[in-house]
Amino acid sequence: MKSSIAWLALLASTGLGQAQGPAGPAPVAPSGAFEVNAIAAKVNGRVITKSKVGFMLSPIFAQLAAQFPRRGPEFERQVLEAREKILQELIDREIIISEFKEMEKKGANLPDHVVDKEIKRQILSNYGGDEKRFQEELKRARMSTDGYRKMTREQLIVQAMRAEHFADAPPPLPGEVSKEYAEMKDKIRDTTKDKITFYKIFLPRQDAQNPLANPDSQLALAEQLAGEIKAGADVAELAKKHSRDAFADKGGFQENLPRTDLATEFAAIIFAGKEGDVLGPLEDPAGFTVVKIVDIMPGPAPALDEVREMVEERVRTKKNSVAYENWIAKKRKSAAIDRKL
Predict the structure, then answer these.
(1) What tens digit of pLDDT does each residue of 206-253 get?
(2) Which of 37, 126, 198, 253 has the smallest number of CB atoms closer than 10 Å to its CB?
(3) How many domains does the chain have?
(4) pTM of this prediction?
(5) Domain span at 286
(6) For residue 130, is it within any domain?
(7) How far apart are CA 132 and CA 147, in angstroms?
(8) Are residues 332 and 291 in the same domain?
């Protein structure tokens, strides 16, 4: 295996959530019994637990729960689709790790400092460098530091193995690199410096100013207000009348709010929008939120020269996608896979 794998430190994060901010919903976890050691699948004798699947699914579930306050068939479809994709990724990961273990016997190694560097990058990217917030999220997700480190190491191994097996790809052409950078630079920007300006209406599940209000009536009201705003109603006036947060008297207007002040799933939803979009109702344990976006100011993207190695690797990966899918399909057939989900 190649010893130079510094580009791995620029991998996408695992999607751990951030701490609750003052302007967004808190993560919503699946209810019911939590099967810590239940088996989701076995691959070549190695166990994939339901807890690992649930950990990787939790940020997606939280975002979908916020977007679909009434749940329903589409919510269920997207959750099941996400779970299936995650489980298949974990199965493929175990197949590749099995092969890596054979290579380890011949001297292959992933240095600890590479794993350390990636974890530090994730803490900086997802938590603004706040180690305490990161540890709190691990605790909320019921994952140990060692467990998270192991998961990160496995992700890096998979990336390195893909690079090793498909190192003979045609070299990326300058035009291909420029095109790929243009497509991905928004995704690799410094999101900790993202800012947004929007109007917000927040309706609590129980309204002290309206004793007859209940969660069902508040959700219905939020849906009604979202419809009125989309039809052209003055969002500021509606916020002054209906909203129940600290910004109500300002018409729900919040200017240049840092992304880091928002809960992860709330930020993911609204930063995916564009100027003029009306989003919601979005649900959280406290109530329902309707947002009208005024302006989004993305954080800076790194210059091409800073990430050229990663961009070139992305181009190679795309060129080799067909070859990789054929390779992993053969590995799946020869692996001992026992799915429980």
Answers:
(1) 998 899 999 999 999 999 999 999 999 999 999 999 999 999 999 999
(2) 37
(3) 2
(4) 0.73
(5) 191-297
(6) yes
(7) 17
(8) no
Same domain, 27 and 152: yes
Do 165 and 198 lie in a common domain?
no
* One domain for residues 91 and 151: yes
234 and 123 inside one domain = no
Q: What letter represents residue 30's amino acid?
A: P
- Write out the two tokens for 222: 């939020």
Q: Buried (b) or exposed (e) across 137-159, using 16+ Cβ within 10 A?
A: bbeebebeeebbeebbbbbbbbb
pLDDT tens digit sequence for 240-298: 999 999 999 999 999 999 998 998 889 999 999 999 999 999 999 999 999 999 999 99
In a domain, 37, yes or no: yes
Tokens of 217: 């009536």
CB within 8 Å of 316: residues ≥ 6 apart: 163, 166, 169, 172
Parallel/antiparallel/unpaired status of strands 287-297 and 337-339 = unpaired
- Is residue 225 domain-shared with residue 259, that is, in the same domain? yes
**Tens digit of pLDDT for each residue in 45-104?**
999 999 889 888 988 998 999 999 999 999 999 999 999 999 999 999 999 988 888 888
